[in-house]
Amino acid sequence: MSIIIRPMQPADCADCETLFRLIFDPLAPREDCDECLLTEHFQAHIERFPEGQFVAIDNQNGTLVGASTTLRKTFDLAHPHLDKWWHSIGEGWLTTHQPQGDWLYGVESFVQADYRGRGIGRDLMNARKALARRLNLRGIFAGSMPIGFHQTPESTPIEAYLKAVVAGERWDDNLSKQLRMGFRPYHAIPNYVTDREPRGYGVVIVWENPDFVG
Description:
This protein has 214 residues and is of the alpha+beta class. It has one domain (3-208): Gcn5-related N-acetyltransferase (GNAT) (Aminopeptidase, 3-Layer(aba) Sandwich). The chain contains 6 helices and 7 strands, in the order βααββαβαβααββ. The chain has helices at 13-24, 39-48, 85-88, 120-134, 158-166, 175-180, and strands at residues 3-7, 53-58, 63-73, 103-111, 139-144, 184-189, 202-208. The protein has a 7-stranded mixed beta sheet, sandwiched between helices. Helix 4 links the parallel strand 4 (103-111) and strand 5.
């Protein structure tokens, strides 16, 4: 199977919405899809920061099977704090994009279920890393969702869960993959998202660009 990673184009935006909703909120009517990235949001992403938006295409049939979106932002590694995800991305419109920001912020990345396990998420991340190098940015930061946290007892502290994931004693299908891609975890963010799986938590993760020239 031949998968290509290329810049997102306006013609991709409706397919990006379809895939996003299929993965994250397949049953909700469009008007009731809270914190959903819709066609018009992806169009705004391209308008604000075209270099930071990528899609994965199955070259055999032209199907869009994955996408990622980023913005630029000033970020203080000494005080790595993030607001709620939806607020951090301007409620989907990327109005928080700072054209002179010295970091990439990973807004979202997603891959169709049938195509997972084939390295597409890694390839999308590598496209982000290549962009950070090309723009001479300090690196990439994001709020990772520990999507396996809901499988632990309610009394389990998030810090204990993260410690087990970092130590390799527990596998988290999202965070563990990002750690393998060179990200370092910092701390948990309560109420970062509304998703049930991470119980609302995010985790600040950072990849520092080794080629950055200050």
